[in-house]
Amino acid sequence: MIRLLLRDLALAVRAGGGFGLGLAFFLITVVLVPFGVGPEAALLARIAPGMLWIGALLACLLSLDRIFQLDYEDGSLDLLATAPIPMEAVVSVKALAHWLTTGLPLVLAAPVLGVLLHLPGPGYVWLLVSLALGTPALSMIGAFGAALTVGIKRGGLLLSVLVLPLYVPTLIFGTEVARRGAEGLSPTTALALLAGITLAAVALLPFAAAAAIRVNLR
Amino acid sequence: MSIWEYANPRRFMGWTAPLVPVLSVLAGAALAVGLIWGYFFTPDDYRMGATVKIIYIHVPSAMMAINAWVMMLVASLIWIVRRHHVSALAARAAAPVGMAMTVIALLTGAIWGQPMWGTWWAWDPRLTSFLILFLFYLGYIAMWAAIENPDTAADLTSVLCLVGSVFAILSRYAVNFWNQGLHQGASLSLDAEENVADVFWVPLVVSLVGFVLLFLALVLVRTRTEIRARRLHAIGLHERMG
Amino acid sequence: MMPELGKYAPEVLSAYALTLGLIAALVVLTWVRARRVKRALDAAEARRAHG
């Protein structure tokens, strides 16, 4: 399993696997925001947590179809299915690899981009915390979506249509934590709910995703 | 794949055949009575004026939008557990009807909201939840359309429906947490204090029954169509092979 | 005998018109597809029986 994780990580970093691409996309969307809404600092500060969250979410979406697609096409997914590790574990490891290569860089880059959007001082910590807690859920939900659409040619668009509604609760609680943090309110309730969603997603979705993979390999 | 696999659907076709006209007539009658009663023979509300008449379509369509999803969830579970083909096809047949109901609820709500709240749209929890429900319907229908193999499609959409249901409920609570709304609470529950008066209640229930019957009739016809379409597909494969 | 809708007439009428239109569209689409598939299936069954 660790071997699989290392392999996925190596593949993502090496073969132009969209490792830096998600980050670049995140940067560009955030840079585009002031062009869209104007450079007024007070307005930017108010929408900064939400914009950073949406940017991170879209950047995360960008690399989802790679989670299973390549392995499905070259047959290594079939090999993994017959391997002695359960498919649930494979799915979890792949989601973890996706998080390490996409989610984690996004989390670390978010505060830097927060400066561009005039994120208020107390917001940085909470933005970091909310993204760190929320992005694993994004990766896991995304892995489920990718598992559903792996057998479909050009499933990328369908994947987005399926996954984005599933992202709604995570996005709501995530931005709520960041927003309350930025405004100096107590974000603990939202934080607890966000953590709950992430834990539930990580605990339960591997089963659904694995079921979908098995159907697609049939 | 043998055509004989459809023996059970054939029995389904048998017992539902006489049901279709009965349900259709009943649905038409109940809808006509409920809507005509509501439209012509109920007084205006002292607060909302004539717009209260929209309730006879808004509330039933909103309820059917949710009930259709629940029905799809049950049908998906039956497919996963018992692998009844009819069940999977019924879920598929219900989705567009449910989506249409969601659209009706959203549109009539917008039309109603304009004079009452002074806006077509507000990011109110109920409204937002319905918009999200609409997106779920969209994804579900797109998923069915995207997959060639019918059994694979049935399996994957069932899984999607299950997970989607959980997330739809989560979204409902998340949205509640996110914004307190303008929308009034339940208007039909028996114990609520904020209930509608009897003059509105009876035609509303009739109209609701009409929507339920309409939904059943439509789903039945559509399921039968799906069964026929699949048999047609099977015959087509058979002819090309032999 | 049209009921007096007052100043909200456009809202009420458009809501009803939209709903009835959508339901009619749904019914017609369902019905047309049902007929087309049934006809195609009957033709295919006939071909199978004779061929």
Report the portion of residues of chain A in β strands. Answer: under 5%
How are helices and strands ordered from N to C of chain A? HHHHHHHHHH
Q: Could you tell me the number of beta strands of chain B?
A: 0
In total, the number of strands of chain A is 0
Low-pLDDT stretches of chain A:
none
Instruction: Give the overall shape of chain A.
Output: elongated
Q: Greatest chain-chain interface? A: B-C, 36 and 31 residues
What gyration radius of chain B follows from the Cα positions, in whole Å? 20 Å
Q: Helix count of chain A?
A: 10
The helix/strand class of chain B is mainly alpha
Percentage of residues in helical conformation of chain A? over 70%
Q: Assembly state here? A: heterotrimer
Principal-axis shape of chain B? globular
Our measurement of the CA-to-CA distance between the termini of chain B, rounded to an integer number of angstroms, reads 13 Å
User: What is the CA-based Rg of chain A, rounded?
Assistant: 18 Å
Give an overview of the whole structure:
The complex is a heterotrimer of chains A (218), B (242) and C (51). With 218 residues, chain A is an all-alpha fold. Chain A has helices at 2-13, 19-37, 41-62, 66-73, 76-82, 87-116, 123-149, 156-166, 168-182, 188-217. The longest helix of chain A has 30 residues, at 87-116. The longest helix of chain B has 44 residues, at 198-241. Chain B starts with 6 loop residues before the first helix and ends with a helix. In chain B, 78% of the residues lie in helices and 0% in strands. By secondary structure, chain B is mainly alpha-helical. Chain C has one helix at residues 9-50. Chain C is mostly helical and 51 residues long. Chains in contact: A-B, B-C. The B-C interface holds B 35, 39-40, 44, 49-51, 53-54, 57-58, 61, 96-97, 100, 103-104, 107-108, 111-112, 114-115, 214, 218, 221-222, 224-225, 228-229, 231-232, 235-236, 239 and C 1, 3-9, 11-12, 14-16, 18-19, 22-23, 26-27, 30-31, 33-34, 37-38, 40-41, 44-45, 47-48.
